[in-house]
Structure formats: structure tokens, C-alpha cells
Amino acid sequence: MRVDVARLCTRRLSSWRPAKDATVNAFVCAAPPAAPTPAHLPLHNVSVGVKDMICTSDMPTTSSSAMLRDFTPPFDATVVRLLREAGADIVGKLNCDEFGMGSLNVHSVHGPVVNPFQAASDSAPWVDREKRSAGGSSGGSAAAVAAGMCDAALSTDTGGSTRLPASYCGVVGLKPSYGLISRWGVISFADSLDCVGIMAPSVARTKHIFDTLNVPDPKDPTSAPEAARHEAASRAARAWPSAALSALRIGVPHEYFPAELSAAVAAPVRAALARLRAHGATLVPVSLPATPYALGAYYVLSSAEASSNLARYSGVHFGLQVPAPAGTAPGTTASTYARTRTAGFGAEVQKRVLLGAYALTADAFDNYFLQAQRVRRLVRADFARVFRAGADAPGDGVDVLLHPSAMRTAPRLHGSEADTDGLDTYVQDVLTVPASLAGLPALSVPLPVEGDDGWPVGVSVVGPWGAEGVVLRVGEFLEEVR
Ligand code: GLN
After folding, report:
1. Per-residue CA distances from 147 to 26, 86, 110, 284 (Å)
2. In 312-359, where does DSSP find H-type helix?
3. Ligand 1: distance of its center to the CA of 84 in Å?
């Protein structure tokens, strides 16, 4: 079922959408015209696109699902309110994988997002390039920023949905520490992992938006209190007091450079590490032995939470309701559920709901759900052992970890690389899910595009919980030593 996007929008996309977006398909709705904000506000003149899983009172919020095709929330999410109060111009809603489930932004009722990347050295118009994925699930957010259609974008990140598309499209993407940015008004996928992410062309602009959103929210029960934020930030600052590259200890986890890592990714990441070392940073080989188990644990836990979260879309309280066919008996409540959920959810969402519901059944609970929780604890313990500002605070620990954001560059949307249903797309998340399971801040920074492949590569900076100041500073160093 295809949603008629123009019908959904308060302002017809065709009258506003930059010509580029006709092919990129990043925007699903444009905001109604708004009065200019006062010039003294910190985000005055900053245009921000918002992932279509984040509620906006003046535009529909569909989560790229037929289930929510007619849903216009009566409120703004806290993050949207904070941006508006800071003077930002919210320009529209951005395409994504349905309910945030996917790595290629191909599971969307609005159609796939096409990667708009164009190398500076490339004279061919971007529309003539082969069509590659923008990554997912926040593909619209990454593509809109990469194509210059907005100054910054909000995304979400449950297991990598900010960092993977940022890496594929060549923009900066921040998944903040779990609990720092309010999730109130953000459509839930897996509550214990969901974070609002930020995408922008530079680390400085990412930081600007992050600073605006980094406040406790009494409406979000998982929002971290002020004291915890302050304590974490000062612990990180005490561990690296000079904030100089010469005093920075960078952990390089060998599990994040597996044999399957594409050479087009490994070479620029190793070159970036060498540049940082040449400028005085200390590189420390580290091991995070639970890493190979993180991906399986992530898919069990996120699907279990999704099956519970998405139970609310029953055809009774929220969203779509598919009535019994004309001339037939109204049927039971269960048949309304079944008709509505069969028509309203796409194949990927149905798969996750079934997988998650199974993992929570009495028969499977111990073997799947509990084991996955144990793996999650091991992943957390791995990180705590290596950070010098972490809970276990080893004196010879590191300030941040650096590793590739993705196993490869953006896959083609058509042909053999467009395997959108197979295990291969899940494997793309292998490098991003550990930080999600541990709730840590992770920033993907684009590296200079080089080599035969010629498509963007991102490097991820991961720090202890609440150490965004350190992670963003290291991101700036990466930009400075290009
Ligand atoms: N690709 C992962 C998934 O499909 C991550 C999604 C996300 O972070 N929202 O679950």
C-alpha cells in the first residue's frame, strides 16, 4: 500500500521540495510556512529536518508506516519544542525505515531514499550516479543533510540508525548517551535502546544542536537527572584534563577490524588513526571480547521490545483500522486486529513482531531473552574495563575508542547488493550495536573520500556514558587532521 504523500502534507512537497529531492526522496512532508524567529535566538536561521518518527503538531508523523498514514499528533515532541524555542526552522519530515527497523531505508511506505553523495572532485551531476542506499533507518535525515537540503536533522538510533546512514552519506551523526536527550513524543521501537540522534555537516553544528537538546525532561521517565549528567561530564574531564591531542589515549578494539571488513573502509580508518598518532595521540590496542555476540543479542532484545511496543497498533486505539469487507459480518476483535496489522505493517515489521513475540514466550524466554540480557551485561562490562573515566576506571585505560562505523560503503539499491531481506543487512549493524546495548555516546565522522570505491566512509568515536564533551572534541580533531 502506498501513501499519497501529497495528500498527507500540509504543504505540497512539489511546491517546496528542492529539485534534488525528487530523486533522493528524503522528505515526506514539508512544514507549513512559519514566521521568522527572532535573530537573537541561538538557532535562528538554522533549518532542521525531523525524522518522521518524531512527533510534530503541524505535520503528520507516519513512522513511514501505512499504520500511521493519517496520524497528526496534537503535540510536539520535547526535542521539537526545544528546537523551536531556540529559534530553529523546522522545515519538514524525513523518510525512514518503517518504525526505525532497517539498515538501508528501503522498508518505507514512502519508497526508498537514494544516497545523494557527490564527491567534490566529481563533475558528473549527482543524479547521474548509480543509485546507492542512503543507509537506514534514518536515511532521509542523512540524505537531506548530505544534499544540503537542511542545515541539520534529527534522527533516531536504536542499534545504529544514525551512525550507519551518516557513514554511507558522508555526514556527521551523533547517537548521544542513553537518557540524555528526551524521548517524549518519539515513536517507540525498543525503549531500552532508543535514542534521538543528530546529523549535520560538521561536528561543530552537531554540538550546537546537542547542547540545545541536552536537558532533563520530567515527561520522560528515562531522562537522566542533572546531577548524573554533571558527574559523568566532570569524571570524563578529570581523566583528560588538558583536552590536548598529545594527552589523548585512543583505544583501537581489534574485534572491530574483522576479516570481513571491506578494504575500502579499513584503509581510510587506519590512515585516520595514523594521522592522530602523528599529531601526538597514543593508540592503545584493546579487546572487547563480547563484541561477536552483541548483534544476536540486539536483534532478540530490540524485537522483543518492539513486539510489545507495537501491540498498541491494534486497529482499536491508534492508527489504521481495516473494517470487515462490505457485506460480511463484522467478525471478532481478533479478526479486526489481524486485518489491520496485516495491512498496516510491512513485511520487515511483521517479521520483527513475530520474532520478538516468540522470544518472550514461556518456551523461548530463558534461551533467547534472558541469554540476550546476559550478553548485554557482558558488552557493558567490556566497555567499563577499558575506559579510564568508566565505572571501573583503570589507570591505564583509554579516553575513547575509534573504529569503522560500517563494514562497507553504501550498497547499491538495485542488483545483487540490494538484498534487503537477507541476513546480510542485519550484519551491517555489527559495529554499531555494542554502543547501543551499553547506552554509550557514539559519533560517526566522515573521513576524506579516497580509493577506488570513491564513496564515503565514517569512523566512530565511542566514549563513556555522559562523555559527549570528549567524544565531540575528538570528532573535531578528526576534522582538523584530515
Ligand atoms: N538496523 C537496525 C535495526 O534494523 C538498527 C535500527 C535503528 O537503530 N533504528 O534494528
Report:
1. 9, 24, 19, 36
2. 333-344, 347-359
3. 27
Catalytic residue numbers?
Answer: 51, 137, 161
Cis bond upstream, residue 137 (ω within 30) = yes
Best residue for ligand 1 mutational test, from 98, 158, 430 (most atoms within 8 Å of Cβ): 158
Q: Provide the H-helix boundaries in 162-262.
A: 163-169, 203-213, 226-239
What's the ipTM? 0.98
pLDDT in tens, 124-136: 656 556 899 999 9
**What is the per-residue pLDDT across 14-41, written as a single tens digit (0 to 9) for each?**
556 667 788 899 999 999 988 899 999 9
- Among residues 85, 93, 78, 10, the alpha carbon closest in space to that of 48 is found at 93
How many other C-beta atoms are found inside a 10 Å radius of the C-beta of residue 89? Answer: 18
Residue 194 Cα to ligand 1 middle (Å): 10
Which of 203, 139, 138 has the alpha carbon at shortest distance from 174? 203
User: Best of 429, 432, 460 to mutate for ligand 1, by most ligand atoms within 8 A of CB?
Assistant: 429
- Three-point CA angle 276, 282, 285, nearest 5°: 105
